[in-house]
Amino acid sequence: MTTAGPTPDQNDQPGQGGNSTRGSGRRAAMPFILVTVLIDMMSIGMIFPVLPVLVGHFTGSATDQAFWFGMLSLGFAVANFFGSPLLGAMSDRYGRRPVLLIGFCGLAFTFFATAWAPALGALLLVRVIGGALQANSAVAQSYVADISTPQERAKRFGMLGATFGVGFILGPVTGGLLGDIDVHLPFYVAGCLALLNTAYGLFVLPESLPAASRRAFEWKRANPVSALRELSQLRGIGPLVAVIALGNLAQFTMHSSWVLYTSLKFGWGPRENGWSLFVVGVMSVLVQGGLMRQFLKRTTPQRLVQLGLVSSSLCYLVWGLAPVGWMMYAVVFFNVLGFTVTASLQSLVSNAADASRQGRTMGSVSSLGSLMAVVAPLTGAGLLSLVSHRPQGDIWIGLPFYFCALLQAVSAVIAMRHFRRQRSATAAASTAA
Question: How many helices (H) and strands (E) does the chain have?
Fold first, then answer.
């Protein structure tokens, strides 16, 4: 695979290409973006425990509440599917910093407007606008790619993933505590955090993309269909797009099914589910924030993708078969390599794109995730509805997790075949030379 971007020698020249984050500033910029992402993820995570409750204030039954909460989630995901590649392409043209500022302002508007929404229609409109403006994670990934050499990207994407995890650990806990006081309070606090991030980005966060690396904005390339097609055409990526899509579908299906599955299978309540998700978040932080660096000293991102997909497939299977609740925790700790897959795939995709297309490329990856986020809840709910009548402890209640295991197994086969073909092509080229 060919890698794009400047060499380490170029990066170590202060002011190279007019970018203040190159050279010694390149290392300083990494803590800046990590702080930005932490605040961003905390603000998003804070509304998770209370948004369904807020929807319930506008509905008269649990059925209506579930329907409208699903509509809000669907509206956000669809808008994000179209918005992510658009904002990613804008960041390639105008720089990462101004697009991040747009995202922070969009988040602040979404949180405050959600708290003030007088009816369900207004709430749905606000969530759609928020989804269209929320591409912060994709732009943050592009930022990290800008300030990192190809060799550093897997490790730094792991650090970024760990920061996402910390935000999602702290955010829901804080939101739950504030929501006990007033259901609107987490939205006000989250809005204030988004405004804090806007000020931080305005006065502290440096730009990462030099003017020489920027690319003209083209509407025809900024739509999600063109963006995904271009993603699949990146040299050395191709089938990995399917791996990313199937992996996202498995992950989102698991997330959307977890609480109802553990309730049906083990009789868990909010406390048990809260602790289990907390453990998942902590493990993600430990692996991506620390162990990832050690793994990369001993192996390659390609190898981590393959091992991680096999590990995840086995773990989904065991989750579905688990006869007792404590095994859910044991599987989390067993699946160490599974937590390395996302960062490894992000580094491979980022290295395949040149410096002027990082925003659109990572926006395409985010858009693909949004598309899977639309499909996953429907898939998980449909599978659970087929087995919800079975008695507590029945192994067929694990049907959504068996489906996830199949998705990851297929992904592992695709990835192995892809990397084997790459090795064969490289060996053939070396022989010919």
Answer: 19, 0
| pLDDT tier, 188 (very low <50, low <70, confident <90, very high otherwise) | very high
Per-residue pLDDT of 351-376, as tens digits, reads 776 665 665 666 667 767 767 877 88
Q: Six-digit token pair at 170? A: 């702290």
| pTM exceeding 0.85 | no
CA 93 to CA 213: how far, in whole Å?
9
SS3 196: helix
Contact 259, 253 (CB under 8 A): no
Other C-beta atoms within 10 Å of 118: how many? Answer: 8
Q: Where are the alpha helices (DSSP H) in 182-269?
A: 185-203, 219-222, 224-232, 240-266
> How far is the C-alpha of 4 from the C-alpha of 363, rounded, in Å?
17
Among candidate residues 277, 258, 268, the one with its CA nearest the CA of residue 380: 258
Q: Count of residues for the chain?
A: 433
CA distance between the termini of the chain: 17
Of 254, 208, 250, residue with least CA distance to 362: 208
Mean pLDDT of 59-86: 77
CB 250 within 8 A of CB 404: yes
Q: What is the per-residue pLDDT across 228-255, written as a single tens digit (0 to 9) for each?
A: 676 666 666 778 888 888 998 998 888 7
Q: Which residue has the tokens 């453990």?
A: 279
Match 């502290």 to its residue by tokens. 204
Q: Decide: residue 61, CB within 10 A, 0-12 exposed, 13-18 middle, 19+ buried.
A: exposed
Question: CA quadruple 182, 197, 74, 166: dihedral positive or negative?
Answer: negative
